[in-house]
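CO-FOLDING WORKSHEET

Operator: S.A.
Ligand of interest: NAP
Run index: 260
Mode: holo prediction, single chain
Checklist:
[x] sequence pasted
[x] SMILES validated
[ ] output reviewed
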Amino acid sequence: MDLGLEGRRAIVTGGSKGLGAAIAAELVAEGARVAICSRHREELEETAGELRQAGGWVLAEAADVTDPAQVERFVAGSAQAMGGLDILVNNAGRAHPGSFADLSDQDFQADLEVKLFSQIRCSRAAIGHLRRSGGGAIININAVYGRQPDPAFFATTVNRAACFAFSKALAMELAPDRILVNSVNIGYVRTPQWERIHARRAPQLSFEDFLSQASREEVPLGRFGEPAEVSGLVAFLASPRASYITGASIDVAGGMGRYV
Ligand SMILES: NC(=O)c1ccc[n+]([C@@H]2O[C@H](COP(=O)([O-])OP(=O)(O)OC[C@H]3O[C@@H](n4cnc5c(N)ncnc54)[C@H](OP(=O)(O)O)[C@@H]3O)[C@@H](O)[C@H]2O)c1
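OUTPUT RECEIVED:
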């Protein structure tokens, strides 16, 4: 299926590794121009280099999505360099595991900054550019735990619920501008963030044993997902083939999510 993404202009936050890098690679493979950001320049440049080697047009800028001035600069600079903007993928984020007893107000606030306010700020910075393109797509990468509360991921549970409300309300507000806003909700997908969770939670197990144990307990399909199993859906939602889908919330989670 030709997604019709040739020449489209996309921003992927947190594009240096994990899901963001896979999404950027998928969009590049479909012929889109892509701008990626993260905080660590070296890692970002390495990923951008790999994408360019694959024939892609890629801009890489160090930017922290919790800093309003850096977000503004990155989005404006990317739109200028690409000659406009059609797609924003709000992917940057991180896990902040812990129960209510483990988390201070500062922990909750820091997590809100990374998860909710990054989506708010990047969207605000992008909307004018998307309008000038005659419409576009915003895809927010969220988590199943925002709908299925898990006290072991307390901050994610609370803050991703706010991200779902943000996606839905924004989809309604921007529909007249033909800007589509959708949420892609992750369960357990193998990315570098799980290496950090493994090191903290169960360093006595091998990484593979840790993932197997977690997926046996939580995932009906019985395994972790791979980033490439997420990026195809994001590319589809970013494409004209998804032109009647907005305000949707789609799980990519191997059956996780005990709700209907
Ligand atoms: N993998 C999963 O199972 C899973 C489950 C639920 C939700 N998610 C969500 O999916 C998204 C991607 O996760 P991932 O698993 O791919 O994580 P990852 O492997 O840790 O990659 C996260 C990316 O975001 C960037 N990033 C983090 N904080 C940032 C900041 N303040 N400003 C700019 N960039 C920042 C990281 O680069 P730097 O650190 O260099 O900035 C990196 O590029 C996140 O929003 C995460 O919460 C993932």
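REVIEW:
The pocket of NAP is lined by residues 13-14, 16-20, 37-40, 43, 64-66, 91-95, 114, 141, 143, 186, 188-189, 191-193 (CB under 6 Å).
The first strand starts at residue 9 and ends at 13.
[x] output reviewed
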